């Protein structure tokens, strides 16, 4: 089986999610949307892979908003179309943060700037903890999605919906893939300044991530296992 990970920027690594897919025998293919050289000028033209070539698609997070057509519209509109077509065709999709926002928008939901950002390790309220646990999960977003028509909401926080399921697709607002190495890279590319602007300490957050890493990996593995078996139907 083949899994397509859509990496929207060079610092968007597959992490624990990718490792768990590989554990289940998936051939991992990574598609980079915005190369490092275009990070500060990301509105480029992109041709996405044919989703029918893959058994599951995992669009990852991004430092941009899935509502911001002025910033990334040249490729965002195509990705919204591709992901929408994939979901409607019954292709399993696991959308993570920006990826979940793309799924929502593709299926008629709305994505917009959130009144309150969420940054750091937070607990969520899940009504299906066997699929998506209460966490804590790492968050780093300024936007939020609405649960699209026909989907069922399965988790939320005070700031935003956190997870939904529709068909063989799961969207989550948080970052199950993240580890301390990835967070350190995010900090190098502007994330540290955003954390400081929110009144938080990048150094403390990085140490919290190191401390949480082992337990977080187990939560991520459990999420991927439950998604692949109970939602996507790709493993038994």
Automatic annotation (TrEMBL):
<dbReference type="InterPro" id="IPR044992">
    <property type="entry name" value="ChyE-like"/>
</dbReference>
<dbReference type="Pfam" id="PF00117">
    <property type="entry name" value="GATase"/>
</dbReference>
<dbReference type="InterPro" id="IPR017926">
    <property type="entry name" value="GATASE"/>
</dbReference>
<protein>
    <submittedName>
        <fullName>Unannotated protein</fullName>
    </submittedName>
</protein>
<dbReference type="GO" id="GO:0005829">
    <property type="term" value="C:cytosol"/>
</dbReference>
<feature type="domain" description="Glutamine amidotransferase">
    <location>
        <begin position="78"/>
        <end position="182"/>
    </location>
</feature>
<dbReference type="InterPro" id="IPR029062">
    <property type="entry name" value="Class_I_gatase-like"/>
</dbReference>
């Amino acid at each position: 089986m083949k899994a397509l990970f859509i990496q929207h920027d060079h610092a968007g690594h597959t992490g624990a999610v990718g490792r768990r897919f590989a554990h289940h025998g998936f051939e991992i293919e990574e598609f980079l949307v915005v190369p490092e050289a275009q990070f500060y000028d990301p509105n480029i033209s992109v041709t996405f892979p044919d989703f029918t070539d893959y058994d599951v698609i995992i669009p990852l997070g991004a430092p941009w908003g899935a509502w911001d057509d002025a910033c990334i519209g040249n490729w965002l509109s195509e990705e919204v179309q591709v992901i929408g077509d994939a979901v409607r065709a019954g292709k399993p999709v696991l959308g993570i943060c920006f990826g979940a926002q793309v799924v929502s928008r593709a299926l008629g939901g709305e994505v917009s700037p959130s009144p309150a950002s969420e940054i750091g390790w937070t607990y969520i309220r899940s009504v299906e903890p066997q699929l998506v646990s209460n966490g804590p999960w790492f968050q780093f977003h300024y936007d939020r999605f609405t649960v699209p028509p026909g989907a069922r909401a399965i988790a939320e926080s005070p700031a935003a919906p956190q997870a939904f399921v529709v068909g063989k697709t799961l969207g989550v607002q948080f970052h199950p893939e993240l580890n301390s190495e990835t967070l350190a890279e995010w900090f190098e590319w502007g994330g540290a300044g955003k954390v400081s602007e929110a009144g938080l300490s990048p150094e403390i957050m990085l140490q919290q991530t190191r401390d949480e890493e082992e337990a977080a990996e187990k939560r991520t593995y459990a999420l991927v296992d439950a998604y692949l078996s109970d939602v996507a139907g790709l493993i038994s």
